[in-house]
Design a protein that fits this description.
Blueprint: H1 4-15, H2 19-26, H3 30-37, H4 48-55, H5 59-62, H6 67-82, H7 89-102, H8 107-114, H9 123-136, H10 140-156, H11 163-167, H12 177-184, H13 187-218, H14 222-238, H15 258-269
Helix pairs in contact: 2-3, 4-9, 6-7, 7-8, 8-9, 8-10, 9-10, 12-13, 13-14, 14-15
Length: 270
Amino acid sequence: MIKLGEKIKSLRKQKNISQEVFANYLGVSFQAVSKWENGNTMPDVTMIPAIASFFGVSTDELFDFNRFETEKQVDAICNEAYRYRFTDTEKSERILREGLQRFPGNDIILNNLLYTLDYQTRADEVVNLCKTLIESTEDDSVKYDACRILATCYRENGQQALVQPTLEIIPEIYFTKLELMATLLEGEESYEAAQKQKNISAEDLIDMLIIIGKHLKENGEPEKAASQFRIAQKVIDAFAEDFVETKWFKATVYEYTGEQRKEIAQLLME
């Protein structure tokens, strides 16, 4: 496998640019680029997508990986990390960090990593990583998910003026890939997509009911608000009967919505 420094040097020469020009694009010193190309140091993992974007190649191509084999291994890493996302965030992050050591700068792993970072205590890291993915990834699903996470991070850190401009990047979509896979595929592929979409839809429904209820409560309609909170409570309680498909999940919707249950109970008491 060709070394990263050698690949960068080869691509730079193909593009017929100097180390200084390349360094200015990335916002680093030309000495840093020289050290990469000589194999003395490696670029920071968050810079890999930007480097790949500059040369018009995928991150896999930058590392000279076999795309098909890489995708299979990356999926396995992300699926393993997802199993712990709601129950052991530190373990989920550790799995993804180890994955980045094998596949530095991989968009999918970096996107999954965002789900393990606290938006308040690690806001700078979240913002920088989101901006890198938005500017550099060729995968629209990664780009728009990064937009969503960036907007959420801005909101949680009191930067409300930056929320709407960030959300405007995202096109309006009325269906998901998982929905289509569940309804149009067959067998195990359909089942897996349906299981994943079921959990996503349940989480979204609970969140929307809470948001609507809070708005109604703030606008002096306590009975309507209470009805939304009770529906949300019933949705959560319904998942007490669900089972964990351990191939993809570590817990049920009921088990990882404990905070929402407490919030709803408090809202109904007020």
